[in-house]
């Protein structure tokens, strides 16, 4: 095998690996409402807990105009093929105040569940509501999903 063939194969393998990693993970879908935008990101491996189980980090990026308080309802989920419904494996609701316009990053840590044989296909979904400085509270937005990532137990 010559250097040209080796280089071409290495380049093709790199492109395939990059496409698989980004294509499967998918892109985050942001949800915007009343001067705030929240973006859920695909979970990432974050280490092990004291029991030796894998822990995933679920990140939510929040951008708000000043004078807003955002409430985020977050669910960690395991994707299943149709016709099986996806499994909710954790849920939390939190609020963040924005006296001035800004960006906040919220990280939620949860152990990787064991819901099936093989890998767990994990993602998160969020919905938001916003309270303005004059006390007006929006309705909840619809749900928006992060990309999906596969993790082995």
Seen as an oligomer or otherwise, the chain set is single chain
Q: What helical percentage do the residues reach?
A: 10-25%
Low-confidence stretches are 3-25
Number of strands: 10
What would the principal axes of the Cα set say about the shape? Answer: elongated
Secondary-structure content class: alpha+beta
Provide a count of the helices.
1
Terminal Cα span = 38 Å
Strand content: over 45%
Whole-number tally of structural domains: 1
The CATH topology annotation reads as: Immunoglobulin-like
Q: C-alpha Rg, in Å?
A: 19 Å
CATH superfamily: Immunoglobulins
For the largest beta-sheet, the strand count, sense and barrel status come to: 5 strands, antiparallel
Could you explain how this protein is built, in words?
This protein has a single domain, classed as Sandwich (Immunoglobulin-like), CATH 2.60.40.10. Helices cover 15% and strands 49% of the residues. It contains one helix and ten strands, in the order αββββββββββ. The strands form two sheets. Strands 1, 2, 3, 4 and 7 form a five-stranded antiparallel beta sheet that branches. Strands 5, 6, 8, 9 and 10 form a five-stranded antiparallel beta sheet that branches. Strand 1 (31-33) and strand 2 form a beta hairpin. The radius of gyration is 19 Å and the shape is elongated.
């Amino acid at each position: 095998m010559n250097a040209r063939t080796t280089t071409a194969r290495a380049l093709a393998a790199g492109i395939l690996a990059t496409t698989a990693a980004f294509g499967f993970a998918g892109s985050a879908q942001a949800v915007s409402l009343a001067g705030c935008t929240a973006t859920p990101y695909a979970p990432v491996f974050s280490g092990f807990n004291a029991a030796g189980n894998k822990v995933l980090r679920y990140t939510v990026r929040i951008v708000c105009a000043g004078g807003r308080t955002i409430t985020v309802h977050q669910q960690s989920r395991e994707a299943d093929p149709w016709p099986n419904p996806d499994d909710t494996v954790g849920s939390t609701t939190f609020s963040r105040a924005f006296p001035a316009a800004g960006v906040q990053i919220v990280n939620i840590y949860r152990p990787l569940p064991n819901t099936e044989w093989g890998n767990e296909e994990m993602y998160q979904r969020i919905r938001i509501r916003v309270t303005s400085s004059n006390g007006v509270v929006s309705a909840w937005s619809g749900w928006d999903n992060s990309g999906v990532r596969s993790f082995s137990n």
